[in-house]
Amino acid sequence: MSKSSANAWKLAQDFMRRQAGVVLEDDQDYLLNARLQPVASELGFPDVPALVVRACQGSAGSPEAKAVLDALTTHETYFFREQAFWKGFKQEIVPALFKQGPRPLRIWSAACSTGQEAYSFAILLSEIAPTVVNDCEILATDISQPVIHKAREGRYSAFEVNRGVSGSRLVRHFRQCTGGFRVRTQVRRRVSWTEHNLFESLPTNAGQFDLILCRNVLIYFTREDRQRVEERLISHLSPGGFIGIGCAERSAGSKLTSVCPGWYRKS
Ligand SMILES: C[S@@+](CC[C@H](N)C(=O)[O-])C[C@H]1O[C@@H](n2cnc3c(N)ncnc32)[C@H](O)[C@@H]1O
Predict the structure, then answer these.
(1) Dihedral of CA 215/216/217/222: which sign?
(2) Which of 150, 152, 234, 244 is most enclosed, with most CB atoms within 10 A?
(3) 215 CB less than 6 Å from ligand 1?
(4) Calpha distance 251→233 (Å, rounded)
(5) Which domains does the chain have, with CATH numbers?
(6) How many angstroms separate the CA atoms of 116 and 138, rounded?
(7) How far is it, in rounded angstroms, from Cα 267 to Cα 232?
(8) What are 171-199's pLDDT values in tens digits?
(9) How far is the CA of 73 from the centre of ligand 1 (A)?
């Protein structure tokens, strides 16, 4: 790696840690060219270091900064990700939430990527709580503008729906469109989408949530940052509400009690 690329990688590591909390390890320096060369070409920079210097030393909201942040974050996701998580939701969480019968829920999918997690909840709620689903609210947020745009559109390729959507759900909740499938309007209108950084507070009028999902993102953060974000999430959780994280992740906080794989309850 040339000296200017090595310097650019250090700048990019520092930028990602400061802006998003994402830790990029030294031995991931292959990402510099793999992810940023296409961005540099598209934005008309002579090379990757020139892009990185502009992105990391300019304003955080500049198009270059947003493009670098988007390219260096991992957006991997799919519908109904992790069977054990959804099994636990149906068997443990739903009975606890609906002890007194079905009621409208408020759900926040934080770091939602391209939307499969939020739509999975919208679909599942229509199956298990059809009488209240239209009164449920799902807020879905991510730091990356392009993924929020794709999520809001709700258009997925055949490859993407094949990762987790059963045949019967495909027929019921999607319609065919050019290039693949689109989530039906009645499912899409249950979710609202907005850009949001986990290190910032939600607007005060966002209120409290019964369920908060923050899955497969805190693994990229330091332990201290994980704790800070968890505390912020817990402050948005209703008393007795639940937080869902990746099944292989562990909560960093002490105010949560483990319920089943991926699920914790506010004590
Ligand atoms: C691997 S995806 C996880 C998507 C989904 N939650 C799941 O489990 O399938 C991680 C997402 O976290 C987002 N992200 C990373 N840092 C973030 C931050 N500081 N605030 C909000 N979102 C962030 C990324 O843009 C990415 O879309």
Answers:
(1) positive
(2) 244
(3) yes
(4) 12
(5) 3-72 (1.10.155), 83-266 (3.40.50.150)
(6) 13
(7) 15
(8) 999 999 999 999 999 999 999 999 999 99
(9) 7
